[in-house]
Amino acid sequence: MTVHALDGLQEREVELPAIGSITRMTASPMSDHVYYGFDSYTHPTSIYHADLSVQSEQVFLKPEISGFDADRYAVKRHSTPARTARESRCLSFTERD
Questions:
Q1: Is the pLDDT of residue 85 over 80?
Q2: Are the C-beta atoms of 70 and 43 separated by less than 8 Å?
Q3: Where is each Peptidase S9A N-terminal domain found (predicted)?
Q4: Which residues of 77-90 are buried (b: 16+ CB within 10 A; e: fewer)?
């Protein structure tokens, strides 16, 4: 995720916890606090809080799923040659050792 100033200039990158999607974002131009939802194929939607003034991100709300440990699995992004001019992209899921 990229953070931009109000004038549009890029300020920094925020590293996301895994390959996934930002589902919602809430912020105010008058505040340095941002809340966003993040989910992936192995992580249910969690809410994160970012304080842009000190460049910190932390989990604000995370559901617990009994018996499931997302850290046991890895998701990797791959690109493969295709017959057309575009390359084909896919994801693979593996259990970590």
A1: no
A2: yes
A3: 10-59
A4: eeeeeeeeeeeeee
Q: What six digits make up the tokens of 77?
A: 């992004």
**pLDDT tens readout for residues 30-54:** 888 989 999 988 888 999 998 888 8
- The range of the structural domain enclosing residue 54 comes to 2-95
Nearest to 52 by CA among 70, 24, 33: 33
CB atoms within 10 A of CB 19: 14
Those residues with Cβ within 8 angstroms of residue 50's Cβ, 6 or more apart along the chain or in another chain: 14, 33, 34, 35, 36, 56, 57
Half-sphere exposure of 5 (CA within 13 A, CB side): 4
Distance CA 44, CA 65 (A): 9
Residues linked to residue 85 through DSSP beta bridges, in sequence order: none
